[in-house]
Specification:
It contains eight helices and seven strands; from the N terminus they run βαβαβαβαβαβααβα. By secondary structure, it is α/β, with parallel strands linked by helices. It has a single domain, classed as Rossmann fold. It is globular, with a radius of gyration of 18 Å.
Length: 259
């Protein structure tokens, strides 16, 4: 499957946990050389070890994606380790749940920095590597929350994810001169570590609102990102794809009951 990924130097931000770890695992399984960017050393080491045990190639760099110098160091470390940067999966994100009346300006700014500003910083830092390689691929991890749906407590998260799609459109035009595409994956409810402590009743209720009657797997997002990164997707840029099991389709819960 998508053999064009083999040997490609790939950065996955937020690659030590959740969706990012799923993306890193999927890319490594197809032969990519994966640089995981994360803030936590223990989780990053565990993700790299898991990929290596499965026969893949991976390393990690500790990075704060909201800080320009840290992102520059990440790209430099990837070029030193793997000879360049071919693919950027800008996945890092945070999603504290705080309603507007309780949200501090600092929390708003922090979510915007990690989720939205980081997309700009990581793309900017990779442009010289893409230019040197003669081509590149960028995949953003956005969300259905913000661009399509809303949920109380996630005004800042939703704004950041909608902002990524606004950034995407102009970035696609500017990156074209470097023969580089940029696209976004918009996950729905994906089963990650963050949901494990919410209880079976909560998970079952979530799954019941999805036409396919299950939560997504991190690999589902990884495979969508993999396609956008492939040579087979070379003529697709500035686009987004929803990966949500049909979650955004029903008009109401009654529609789900009719399935």
């Amino acid at each position: 499957m998508l053999s064009s990924i083999a040997g490609k130097s790939t950065i996955v931000t937020g690659g030590s946990k959740g969706i990012g770890r799923g993306i890193a695992t999927v890319f490594a399984a197809q032969g990519a050389k994966v640089m995981i960017a994360a803030r936590g050393k223990e989780a990053a080491e565990a993700a790299v070890a898991e990929i290596a045990e499965a026969g893949g190639t991976a390393a990690y760099t500790l990075c704060d994606v909201a800080e320009w110098e840290s992102v520059e160091a990440l790209v430099a470390a990837t070029r030193d380790r793997f000879g360049g940067v071919d693919i950027l999966c800008a996945n890092a994100g945070v999603f504290p749940q705080t309603k507007l009346i309780e949200m501090s300006p600092g929390e708003w700014d922090g979510v915007m920095a990690t989720n939205l500003k980081s997309s700009f910083l990581c793309v900017k830092a990779c442009i010289p590597a893409f230019e040197a390689a003669g081509q590149g691929r960028v995949i953003l991890t956005s969300s259905i929350t913000g661009p399509v749906t809303g949920f109380p407590g996630w005004a800042h998260y939703g704004a950041s994810k909608a902002g990524q799609l606004g950034f995407l459109k102009t970035a696609a035009m500017e990156l074209a001169r470097y023969n580089t595409t940029i696209n976004a994956v918009m996950p729905g409810n994906i089963y990650t570590e963050g949901l494990q402590d919410l209880g079976e009743d909560y998970l079952e209720t979530m799954a019941a609102s999805i036409p396919l009657k299950r939560l997504g797997r991190v690999e589902d997002i990884g495979h969508a990102a993999l396609f956008f990164a492939s040579a087979e997707a070379a003529y697709i840029t500035g686009q987004q794809i929803v990966v949500d099991g049909g979650q955004i389709l029903p008009e109401s819960l009654e529609a789900i009951e009719e399935i």
